[in-house]
Amino acid sequence: MGDNDGLKQLRRSDYAYFLSYRTRWSDNDQYAHVNNSIYYHLFDSIVNTYLITHCGLSPTRSNQIGLVISSSCRFYSPVSFPAVLDLGLRVTKLGKSSVTYEVAVFEEGQDVPGAVGGYTHVFVDSETRKSTPMAVRTREGLAQICAGMKDSVASKL
């Protein structure tokens, strides 16, 4: 997910794919801001939405699934209900059987993220759980949002 100092410098234009999320009252914790665990739900939502809609991955019908092997999140500013969030997604590393996603959480209308995190998937056979090269369509879809390719990708999504 890049160096932590560099994450603070990211802007909305660094991401090629976006998904909106309207916070819920139940997302807030006792300190009246979105609980840390909710951010991981947000990461999971944008990644899987992208995999289903742009990579042809069907969680219930695919021979291949992605398993999370690591995850992280850096928090820069709190958000609270009733905020609307824009989640930005990009791929920072694309291997033969693994991919590292980076997700930035922006409050609607803001250019600076309140949090940046993500995780690494290793693709495995859905039955044996053994690592396997990712499907061609999955890899092609993920390549479309690789960091550094955003200018050519944004017009395609």
From TrEMBL:
Entry superkingdom: Eukaryota
Keyword set includes Hydrolase: yes
UniProt KW Hydrolase keyword: yes
One Pfam family named in its UniProt record: 4HBT
Keywords: Hydrolase
InterPro entries recorded: 4-hydroxybenzoyl-CoA_TE (IPR050563), HotDog_dom_sf (IPR029069), Thioestr_dom (IPR006683)
CDD domains, alphabetized: 4HBT
Thioesterase domain boundaries: 32-111
Family: Belongs to the 4-hydroxybenzoyl-CoA thioesterase family.
Protein name: Thioesterase
Lineage: Eukaryota, Fungi, Dikarya, Basidiomycota, Agaricomycotina
